[in-house]
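Holo model, pyridoxal-5'-phosphate. Inputs:
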Amino acid sequence: MISDPQRRAFDLRVRPTEARIDASALAHNLREVRKAAPNARICAVVKADGYGHGAVIAARSFLGAGADWLGVALVEEALALRNLDIRAPILVLGGQYTDYGLLLQHHLTPLVYRAEMIDALASAAKERGVVAEAHLKLDSGMGRIGVLPRDLPGLLEHARSVPQVRLTGLCSHFANADLRDEAATARALELFAEARQAMRALGFPLQLSHLANSAAVLDVKISHHDMVRPGLMLYGAVPAPKFAGMADLRPAMSWVTGVSHLKWVPKGMPISYGHKWTAQRESLIATLPVGYADGYRRSLTNKAQVLIAGRRVPQVGAVCMDMMMADVTDLAAEVSLGSEVVLLGQQGDARITAEELSAICDTIPYEIFCAVGARVPRLAV
Ligand SMILES: Cc1ncc(COP(=O)(O)O)c(C=O)c1O
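Output:
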């Protein structure tokens, strides 16, 4: 679709920096989840602006490819989707609701795990003359939100006395599935199964039991239950290197920019704040109009590479707020002002992944994606 990216970079906007989101890769990845969990429904997690890819592009792509539900963290995120006429069921995973009427008005499904949450939902339902549905969140070892197994019987007892709320789902979240920590995962599965059994025995109308994130979709088949809740793999990355190759995932984000300045500097010339890199020869230095304010982390300084003319070149000198530099001496014949530069994604046969960048700055691919800032336009391709 992009016929002449090099020209286009300078044609469309003043700064040639954008994140291109490949909607067909998103759809493909959804179908890979379907293959990995053929008997489960899929709740596609599009929180945090679709893991930085753009929640709307992501939601539409996943729903178009057959996702059954969407998962967001915040009511605000759900409302943004509803405002764009996305009508699929939405699970609001974050547990921070405040206004339960809003949830009902927009057909959003909350997670409940305290008696007063059930009561607040019930009173909003009563006001509207409806019965609300909610999923019960169990803390099976994450220590974040959710009811602890020891407190479950009391909460279920309370829920039975509140007819305006129907608990139609049970959910939990793995703390360690990405570590392949079998003991913690097995314990979580056991606690989940016990909670499910308890809810069934008490006659709750349980329709959806779900706890599998990407790692569990790929690696813990018995966790799939009625629905899986993948995020990261839908965007084409794996939670940890050991999951590489377990599904045919296609990275959906290409973060590109263009060379904004190009100059030969003499041997011995230091580059950028703190003079953390010095030219060891006469060097051709390309300045790129993107920096840590855009989410290109400063801890990548002198460690990352970028792609120009289909080849890897080193990023050099401290990453600044709005700019950074690359050493393109070895590509002098091929680089000019405006040349397209790939920070994340593929160019020719070369590729830089979120996994690679996250390893350099000792974080996880999630954070690389989520860090891509609001001032980087997302462009569906
Ligand atoms: C409650 C919940 N469910 C599902 C997911 C998706 O996890 P992943 O992106 O590892 O697939 C997340 C992500 O953090 C989450 O917080």
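The chain has a mean pLDDT of 95. The longest helix spans residues 182-201.
Archived with the compound record.
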